Amino acid sequence: MKNLNWQTVRRTTLDYTFLTIGAGLLALNIALLLVPNRIVSGGATGLATLLYYKLGTPVGTMVLIINIPLFIAGVKWGGGMRFAVRTIYATVLMSVLTDLLTPWAATLPPINEPLLFVLYGGLIDGVGMGLVFRGQGTTGGTDVVARLMYHWKAIPLGTTILVVNSIVLIGAAVVFGLQAAMYALILTFVAARVVDIVQGENNYGRAAIIISSKASDIRSSVLTVLERGVTVLEGRGGYTEAGLDVLYCVVARGEVSILKRLVQSIDPKAFVVITEASEVLGEGFRTLR
Fold it and tell me: Is the pTM of this model over 0.90?
């Protein structure tokens, strides 16, 4: 029991270290590179940037205000409390640091070279978001909306994220022009690739094969926490010839760390194989056409 408690404390400390560093990097990126150069990322941050230039409202404060109703809905309908607490922590920290760093960033020489602020912005954004994902959280906004829509209407996560971000980018094109919108698209692409690297992923999906004596408990956790489907296969040990259940499931980017933590918390001796899934079609992912 003592060893278990120590492992829990160690894991939680590491999670919040990732969340803190990731939120700090995201705030630095917003204050130093994105807002001064009118680069609109997706989700709540992008909407807050548009409001900043139209109404003069602080970006960090608006991110927090936009996320408050999403937090309430997410806690009530969208999933586990641990994930919600980490998301709230990362979002509040990022919002506060953004407003604290903005006056300081305004005193620095501007970075006006597009190649620099797009590539550096994408790099910092990707590392920050990847660390937040590894800490089993998000920074709210689009991620929470996507989970809620999947929970309520079974709309694939990627579809909701694409629609919301597209609306924000269209708004950026109207307010700042097509050139700024194109810079935002390039930055988003760079950030997405960096997130994959930080997460240890190279593509959209990962397929997991899980062999465990506690397969039933793991299956229930994946269904309730990740809200992902699980296929139960009938297996037989090659050496013992004993029958056993083999779990097969596919998860999206950002969920691999959560899946591994779930399995480890239930059965540290489980045998897990995670492979690349270069294309995933069906419920929870892109529509099969």
Answer: no
